[in-house]
Amino acid sequence: MKLKTIAAFLMGILMSIGGAYLAVGWIESRSEDVVRATLIDGGHEWAEVNVDGLQVLLNGTAPDEATRFRIVSAVGRVVDPDRIVDDMGVRASEQITPPTFTVEMLRNGDGVSLIGLIPAEAGRDAFTRTIEGLPGMTSVTDMLETAAFPTPRGWEAAIDFATQALDDLPRSKISVSANRVMVTAISNSPEDKRRIEADLARKAPSSVQLVMNITAPRPVISPFTLRFQLDGDQASFDACSADTRESRNAILTSAASVGTLPERPTCAIGLGVPSPNWAKAVDIAMKGLKEMGGGSLTFSDADISLVALDSTSQATFDRVVGDLDATLPDVFSLHAVLPEKVVVDETTPEFVATHSPEGSLQLRGRLPNDGVETIVNSFARAQFGSNNVYLATRDDPSLPANWPVRVLAALEALAILESGAVVVQEDFLEIRGVSGKKNASDLVSRLLAEKLQDASNFEISIRYDELLDRTLDIPTPEECVERINSILAAGKIAFDPSSADISDSASPTVDAIAEIAKQCDRVQMEIGGHTDSQGREIMNEELSQQRADAVLIALQSRRVRTGNFSAKGYGEAIPIASNDTEAGREANRRIEFKLLTDARAAATDNAADEADEETAAEDTPAEETEATSEQN
């Protein structure tokens, strides 16, 4: 009996265990199917589900925390949340790319609009106050946004430079990013445009890419002038004006067809043309000049002055002038001159003015009377300075009536140049010299054509020198040496001990000197090497020479034209400190740059020398001149 009871009890246990096992299996299978279906419906096929008894295990890597939370919530709606075991990971979040910070500054007179996105830590209010503090600024419209991201490298330098540019440009748009500044502005004239471009280029930090779009309004040309000369096959422009690009191209094409131009000339495009047929009239007149064999052609508005060569026959002259009168557009008026052969000797009346590079003006030659002399002297002092005029003229009542006009026009033209000379004769005027203005020939031609009118037989020889062009902001010779020595004061050019090998640490210093030297390639400078007093004197001198030569070679390797440099070793001869201390000896071991000549003065010396030769004969009697020639 007992055995049956025990057997029944065991059987019941086994059946319970079996039933439970089957129930768990069914629950596991059912739960897994339901959860898997939920995951698929939610688009989360990547998630893995495993059921272990009543536990629902979720595995896999969720793209973000929000997705992981959504999966757990969805599964919790189909099974008991307490059964869920979340073993899912979350993919590491990708770093958010910072936005591109940019600012647009739009200025029109005393008002500025600021548009763009700036770093929050840069300080929006501080930036706005800086703009409001610019001179003459009365209105600032702030449309800036900020973002809490680190300030990109170069941002502060770019903003500081852009703010300076905004201060200088009352009509401008400046676009700023971390490493790039684009300046769009309107200047007052072509000269002002060149000045602005040079100034911006000089101030721009090395870390900033500068893009400039500076425009200049079309100038008003008055009188509208063109001066063209033809001698045989050689053609040249002293002045050229056109109203459109098409007109300019037509004029230059016509000039090339009648003679050989030494180089493609410039032709100013401006307002004030007297007739839409300007280019047509110039073309007709140039071809007439070619047919005549050469001479000079001057347009001053609608007045045309044609001066033939003195070798032109009367018949050819009359025929060409007649054809021109018949074919020129109606508005143009032609005045033609066939000059006689001029023989210049001691009796030929002249007035000569010489303007030296130092600023002095010498007036020599002939004037009609004391009254004209007073007028000329006063005019010259007004143009060149009261203390710069030296007057040494003599009276000649036989001079023509228009002589004072010619002299005053010559002085006014000479004032346009940096230095030079002008010679005035009865039927001819010559001016030559040096200028820092690219359009100096245009200006002089326009002035003489207007003042001399029908008597506009003149010759111009003006050389442009960029060293004298103030709009380019080229450093003066003194500034070149000063800037280089200031670089050396901040960081010496060091050499390996007892060697002429420049140390690697000195490369930034040499690089900086090379950048300055490239702007000063016409300034004569000396590279001086110096040592302390330790060692033999002759050895120190040789070492200092080798080190000066090494600096010269280092500049050459950085593409610096070094024809204007010389290298000299001074050894221990010129100490700047005591050699009794280590600090003093260190100071004496140095490289120095020294100015040898004034390049700006040298640029104008030739013109002054030629002018002095021309004026020498005026004040020297013929007998004395001949005697001097024999002695030389």
* Residue share in β-strands: 15-25%
Low-confidence stretches: 603-632
- Domains counted in the coordinates: how many? 5
Mean pLDDT over the residues? 83
CATH superfamily of the largest domain: OmpA-like domain
Largest sheet: 6 strands, mixed
What is the first-to-last residue Cα distance? Answer: 164 Å
How many beta-strand runs? 27
- CATH-scheme architecture of the largest domain: 2-Layer Sandwich
CATH topology of the largest domain: 60s Ribosomal Protein L30, Chain: A
**The first-level CATH class name of the largest domain:** Alpha Beta
Annotation field: number of helices: 17
Strand order of the largest sheet: 8-7-6-9-10-11
The best one-word shape is: elongated
User: Structural class, from secondary structure content?
Assistant: alpha/beta
Approximate helicity band: 40-55%
Radius of gyration: 43 Å
Q: Could you explain the architecture of this structure?
A:
The protein has 632 residues and is α/β, with parallel strands linked by helices. It folds into 5 domains: 25-90, Histidine-containing Protein, Chain: A (2-Layer Sandwich), CATH 3.30.1340.30; 102-215, hypothetical protein tt1634; 225-337, hypothetical protein tt1634; 351-470, hypothetical protein tt1634; 477-597, 2-Layer Sandwich (60s Ribosomal Protein L30, Chain: A). Helix content is 41%, strand content 25%. It has 17 helices and 27 strands. The strands form 7 sheets. It has a 6-stranded mixed beta sheet, with helices on one face. Strand 20, helix 9 and strand 21 (389-395) form a beta-alpha-beta unit. Helix 6 (245-258) runs parallel beside helix 7, helix 7 (278-292) runs antiparallel to helix 8 and helix 9 (370-384) runs parallel beside helix 10 (403-414). The protein starts with a helix and ends with a helix. 30% of the residues are buried. Mean pLDDT is 83; it is low at 603-632.
